[in-house]
Queue: 3 jobs
Job 1
Amino acid sequence: MNKRIAVLPGDGIGPEIVAGAVRILQTIETLYGHQFELTYADIGGCATDKTGTPLPNETITICKNSDAILLGAVGGPKWDSLPVEKRPEQGLLKIRKALNLFANLRPTTCYESLADSSPLKKDIIEGVDLIVVRELTGGIYFGTPSERREIGGKPGAVDTLQYKNEEIERVIEKAFEVAKTRSKKITSVDKANVLETSRVWREIANQVAEKYPDVLLEHMLVDNAAMQLIRNPKQFDVIVTENMFGDILSDEASVLTGSLGMLASSSLSEEGPYLYEPIHGSAPDIAGENIANPLATILSTSMMLRLSFQLDKEATVIEEAVNNVLNKGYRTRDILSPNCKIVSTNEMVEAVNKEIFELVAST
Ligand code: NAD
Ligand code: IPM
Ligand code: MN
């Protein structure tokens, strides 16, 4: 199979973890006889430094001409006081909008061997397998007016939370499609007791549910959902929610797996190409030290192989390799557990890589 992949390492730990994921993609390419043509492009603070904008047009063109996109992370203190249009995070928001990536899938699977790496009790997290479907191109991230520092001539600040019905409907449809392939239960999370956008969200969820009689829909208020995720996460299968709630709840959900460094994601549009990225950020506190956990990014490439290229066997081998390496006790510092082998980013990548060779040789 021949595929073009746009690679956007970004800032902070982005380049380190993306290098690891690319190494794994190249191993898959060799072992299974595929050709992945990689084109690197800038996004985020590094792009602002080079070109004055966090999302150069060239990057958009490269992404649009690709079959899939792999992204590391953007941002860092160096760029925090720039005017808003030059901030790294704007690059990320703009590429999501430019590619119409409205549905962000964030699976949270608790690996048995990491049950001791989470601050939560083992019996609460063991067996957790849920997925957050986060709306990604609407809501308060994209409302207008925004970025205002006055209200009626007085100092203040404005952001606007808005949704068109069609934006709500398409992401809820996507979540139902995901739920059909899983245990057929959806929790739609909103703040319908306070927000009009949430009340409409709830109405639309009920309408969409009529088309999926075999999927059970429940509604939950976001504050309760945040609490239930920690108290009894196994009650959840698919969680569908708006942009900002999904951002917050998925970082919270990552603690069920042991670390933010474990959570992969895929961002889907109607037409493709899709974008794959870990849910975590550029981790400036550990950037450049070769200690970041590369597994979220490696697992994002396995999502790419499965969802964009329908390469199920190849995706599964990566997932099995990650599981085996964790079972053998390899740990970056964010997922330490008793008697583990503490490894660097590169050593973790090499362990997964070796495991893939062994798995393929044994089949
Ligand atoms: P963060 O996700 O970068 O880091 C939060 C904490 O988790 C830090 O202690 C970090 O060291 C740790 N962490 C994150 N990823 C890790 C990994 N792979 N391995 C080990 N530890 C990991 O969030 P933050 O510190 O709030 O934000 C830092 C910057 O990243 C900000 O500029 C923010 O805007 C940006 N950000 C970008 C993205 C993205 O590109 N998708 C996502 C979130 C935050
Ligand atoms: C994420 C990040 C981004 C978001 C930021 C960096 C714009 O937190 O990908 O989860 O809030 O969507
Ligand atoms: Mn986030």
Note: The two ends are 21 Å apart (CA to CA).
Job 2
Amino acid sequence: MQLLTIGAFARLSRLSPKALRLYDELGLLRPARVDGASGYRFYSPDQLERARLVAWLRRVGMPLAKIAEVCDLPAPAAAGAVSDFLTLLEADLSERKGLALSLIAYLSGSETAMPAPHLTIRYAAASDIGRERDRNQDSAYAGPRLLAVADGLGPGGDAASESVIEALRPLESAESPGDLLNALSDAVSAATSSLRSRSESDPEFAGSGSTLTAMLWSGAQLALVHIGDTRAYLLRDGGLFQITHDHSVVQSLIDAGRLTPEEAVSHPQRSLLLRALGAGDDGRPDVSLHDAVAGDRYLLCSDGLTSVVPVAVIRETLNEPESAPGEVVQRLIELANAAGGPDNIACVVADVTGAA
Ligand code: MG
């Protein structure tokens, strides 16, 4: 078969020669032949289909590591992977849209111009010691405006997670917080300062800290604050989406392509955190603003659930028809304990409902 030069192949595949060289280095698209003397790359016409797929997936905005995975899948599975990616893009866009809309309203001085939909939440929270620990360092809280889980670490981990949630509770009764994100961020800063000052004055507390995943509602929007490896998930139209990103060593290895999510589950350092409140140097939480949509269900949970109960089982449990938040919380805790309950377990489930 007649091989094509890199220039000819680039024109036909709509990829630049520079991109082709990069994809070769990454193992995404290897040339059919490389001339030993000149180093010139040659491609087979048979490779055009893969090259075009790569080009299209790049235009969709898929990261290269993900493209490499998708290209090796049979067509129906690849279609599924692209569809999953689209769902992620849509969730990301709707998050940015929420932030952009609130910024537009703020900048044009018309915060009250848009009528807020009358949404409320039904909620439940619980934490459980599990089967192997002698102390429960997880805390969970749910109220009409605030949802939170915290997983304490260090010698005073139980007090740390409780005090973080305690610092957020005034948000529940505060007058309508005009700026949800700032209200939540300020409360988190207050929690951090109190953890730090206690660590300085009490040697037995030194090195203690806590993760935090919390949501504050306004009826139309919700602000999310997150640090550590507690998580928030959104169940929408039957699909389950993790909307927080773990600040853990294993997650950073997954992001760098050095570990697969399957390998991460049994990784010996899976509980090592890169960020937490009060412990270490980096206490910056991630913050984001989301639109509240009637019918959505949120799950906030600690790693005592996600490290032993597969995501597919969590999704199935959240999807149970007619299941009230309280039943789901109990069921998830039972599942974690049935899987050995090696760690404390904290769960919060909240349903967004229409007009109250
Ligand atoms: Mg834990």
Note: The radius of gyration is 24 Å.
Job 3
Amino acid sequence: CTVGVVRETRPGERRVALVPTVVEKLTGRHVRVVVEPGAGIAALIPDEHYTASGASIGDAWSADVVVKVAPPTAREVASLNPGTTLIGFLNPRGDPEAVAGLSTAEVTAFAVEEIPRISRAQSMDALSSQANVAGYKAVLLAAWECTRFFPMLTTAAGTVKPATVLVLGAGVAGLQALATAKRLGGRPTGYDVRPEVAEQVRSVGARWLDLGVEAVGEGGYARELTEDERARQQTELERAIGTFDVVITTALVPGRTAPTLVTEDAVRGMKPGSVVVDLAGETGGNCALTQPGQTVVRHDVTISSPLNLPATMPEHASELYARNVAALLELMLDEQGRWAPDFDDEVVAAACVTRSGSATTGEVR
Ligand code: NAD
């Protein structure tokens, strides 16, 4: 089959769905890869690197399978021929109308967000690969905005204490943030409503903050807290947050707006010059004072809510994403490189959000 790598058009999106090393692997499996001119430019990959890896430069939108990073815009959907397969981040839970649009356009679409978090599909887990980038970059941003050092310094002018860093939500992004804060010399502490992550938090050299509120939901993800649990959590967190120089928040509940974990009172209780980096801005934010996509100063605390951090590291973010996409493609190719998805396969079935012009389920899982 032919796989098309298109140029991303959403503002600020610098990633590309396949990189030359991964193209080479696919062409070795009898797949023809067509790259839209300039598709890799924002990730600093010139067209010649793709052609050197066996791809051709041309009309990638007419390929059998179009691979993308960001959800397609209306104009991009209009560029897809009926019967085309699309793979990418499609935000099916946040934007079901866009999925309906793909269905109307008779596109068969696979949303990488819906790939189940099972061991067999780990190599395809784009949520994790990109969350790693976001968690890492969030700490660098916090260190940049913070008025204090991260590491303990012993100098001729005396000793400086290390920064204390609290990470709320210890999923993939949170664990990477904890590990990065530790490497920078900070003193990280992690918190989550899933008690089983305490061990993972400790394994990256961080402390575990136990607030006694647990909320494990479907598929191992967090569930929404009850009113009572939320009130208890906020009281306990308000008390704890004031003792940290930096707070990084990553708490998400699938299909819901992000929970508020850092109230205005908690910000007021922080030392002047402290920093909050809120990675949940896309779904409303974990801090009550967050302005998604902006950095604001409130009560002498800097509150930053960057959107799409993975796009700020397009080289490695694209490389990791490309490996995820290739693993998913390989699952659906036969020995001769022909497109042969098995819709009964657990991973294929879960990721497929529209098929042959009709949504696979009335409601996205
Ligand atoms: P996510 O991005 O959905 O959420 C981030 C974190 O926020 C989660 O750890 C969640 O528990 C936490 N959270 C939600 N509400 C909270 C609240 N009110 N207070 C504090 N924390 C809150 O999570 P993710 O990083 O995508 O990981 C989700 C799940 O997937 C986890 O169970 C993870 O272990 C699992 N996972 C499995 C695999 C695999 O086995 N292949 C790979 C990656 C992730």
Note: Residues 117-119, 122, 125, 127-128, 131, 168-174, 192-194, 220-222, 225, 250-254, 259, 261 surround nicotinamide-adenine-dinucleotide (CB under 6 Å).
